[in-house]
Design brief:
This protein is mainly alpha-helical. The protein is 51% helix and 9% strand. It contains twelve helices and seven strands. The strands form three sheets. A three-stranded mixed beta sheet has the order 1-3-2. The N terminus is likely disordered.
Length: 250
């Protein structure tokens, strides 16, 4: 490193900026796909996706790839810990605590900012049920006497805690309230209340993060509620967060 500091300045720039990327976020799939930018002998490669702070960002601003990555990481954890979750030496409560403290943080990282569709919610729910089936063991059929996998309804009866989608909804609601109580000068608050100019493109609009919040509020009987005003009452908003956690039913 000392040799680099004493070397040519242009060499240092090439060393630091030699592998730089840029990405154009647009509905046009061809935008910025194959064009590189070069300035001051530094080349910026156009990419369609890259990792930033542990999150996969795509040029189409889609959540599908990020959910796919998260579930892939969760499957790796599930595979590495399958002997622990299937062990008869540990109690059910211990296994559930292991799942909550080790498995879920991998899948739920930065879930507060995720805008989920019903398809993505279903994929998350399927992953959770697979882990829970490993924890609660197969059930012996009363007729045939053979062991079989637990049905979804049986898992819901055995696992009394909120499911993974309910946890995401509650964290998203809690984050929304936190942002809504920020000062108006904060950048995150301005993003929450901004009204973009221009016209929408033809076709069905995308499901946005704010749409998720509206749907969650509607499910707990608060349709048409103003987010900024209602979130100022912390106790009431906390009650809504807890209500949303238990409202989702597959």
């Amino acid at each position: 490193m000392q040799e680099r500091r004493g070397g040519d300045e242009s060499s240092l720039k090439n060393f630091v900026f030699g592998c730089c990327w840029y990405m154009v976020m647009c509905r046009d799939q061809n935008a910025g796909r194959s064009h590189n930018i070069k300035t001051d002998n530094i080349s910026f490669e156009g990419v369609e996706a890259f990792r930033y702070l542990g999150t996969t960002l795509t040029n189409l601003n889609c959540i599908q790839e990020e959910i796919k990555t998260r579930l892939g990481s969760g499957n790796v954890c599930d595979h590495s810990g399958q002997n622990i979750l299937s062990s008869s030496l540990l109690s059910i409560n211990v296994k559930i605590n292991i799942r909550r403290t080790i498995f879920l943080p991998v899948v739920l990282y930065e879930c507060e900012t995720c805008s989920l569709t019903l398809r993505e919610e279903r994929r998350l729910w399927v992953f959770e049920n697979r882990v829970l089936r490993r924890i609660f063991w197969p059930k012996r059929d009363e007729v045939t006497g053979e062991r079989r996998k637990l049905h979804n309804e049986e898992l819901n009866d055995l696992y009394s805690s909120p499911n993974i989608v309910g946890v995401i909804k509650s964290r998203r609601m809690r984050w929304a309230g936190y942002v809504a109580r920020m000062e108006e000068s904060r950048g995150v608050f301005r993003v929450l209340v901004v009204k973009p100019e221009g016209k929408r493109l033809l076709g069905r609009p995308r499901h946005r993060w704010g749409d998720n919040i509206k749907v969650d509020l509607q499910e707990v009987g608060c349709k048409g509620m103003d987010l900024i005003d209602e979130s100022q009452d912390r106790d009431r908003w906390r009650a809504l967060v807890n209500a949303v956690m238990n409202i989702w039913v597959p």
